[in-house]
Amino acid sequence: MSTENRTKVIVPCRLSYAHLWEPDSVNGSEPKYSVSCIIDKKDKDTIAKIKKAIETAKEEGKGKWGGKIPTNLKTPLRDGDTDRSEDEAYGGCMFLNANSKQAPQIVDRQVQPILDQSEVYSGCYGRVSITFYAYNSNGNKGIAAGLGNVQKLRDGEPLGSRANAKDEFEAVDDGEDDFLS
User: Fold this and answer.
1) CA dihedral 112, 116, 121, 127 (to 10 degrees)
2) Model confidence over 85-96: pLDDT tens digits?
3) Which has the closest alpha carbon to 127: 53, 54, 22, 43?
4) Element (H, E) at 168
5) pLDDT single digits (tens) 92-143
6) What is the three-state SS of 30-74?
7) What does the buried/exposed string (b/e) look like for 45-57 if buried means 16 or more CB atoms within 10 Å of the residue's CB?
8) DSSP summary character for residue 89
9) What is the sign of the dihedral through the CA atoms of 22, 25, 29 and 32?
10) Can you tell me the distance from the alpha carbon of 61 to that of 132, in angstroms, rounded to the nearest whole number?
11) What is the rounded CA–CA span in Å between residue 54 and residue 95?
């Protein structure tokens, strides 16, 4: 018998809506750590692994749904071209949102802890450990994506409305700040 977790996938992706350092509350819900994983549609291998893990989680979740898989089941993998068409970062990509009540470990390429919170942000690229599981809560049935750990692989253009200071200001020579006195 294999001890491998068939519902866990290491997902190479671009991070978006990254709330990895502090839990965030959505619409007054319990605060959770979360991230949106943007996966290039060309990465067919990762998408296939995610779909297989979701199918395994469906089979494992039958007990929560009265012994059969519901027809209107919500699943976490979504198409960025249709579900986030207004956001160019999601174009040509699939995505899923993962969350957890527990803080993820966040590491660099050498699996060393990243302590500087500015190093990991919405827009950088990395790998996220995700475990898919069944839920049945308040009449909602589906498969959720549980956030595990995060490994940053490389920088990327920051996402969101935060402007880069280099784009907003020019260098000022000494003595040119007379207007401040």
Assistant:
1) 10
2) 999 999 999 999
3) 43
4) helix 165-168
5) 999 999 999 999 999 999 999 999 999 999 999 999 999 999 999 888 899 9
6) CCEEEEEEEEECCCHHHHHHHHHHHHHHHHHCHHHHCCCCCCCCE
7) ebbeebeebbbbb
8) G
9) negative
10) 10
11) 14
What does the block give as tokens for 105?
Answer: 């470990």
Pairing of strands 32-40, 8-24: antiparallel
Structure tokens at 81: 């071209």
DSSP assignment string, 115-134: --GGGS-BTBEEEEEEEEEE
CB atoms inside a 10 Å sphere around CB 20: 25
The pLDDT tens digits for 8-67 are: 999 999 999 999 999 999 888 899 999 999 999 999 999 999 999 999 999 999 999 999
158, 123 Cβ separation under 8 angstroms: yes
Q: What is the DSSP letter of 29?
A: P
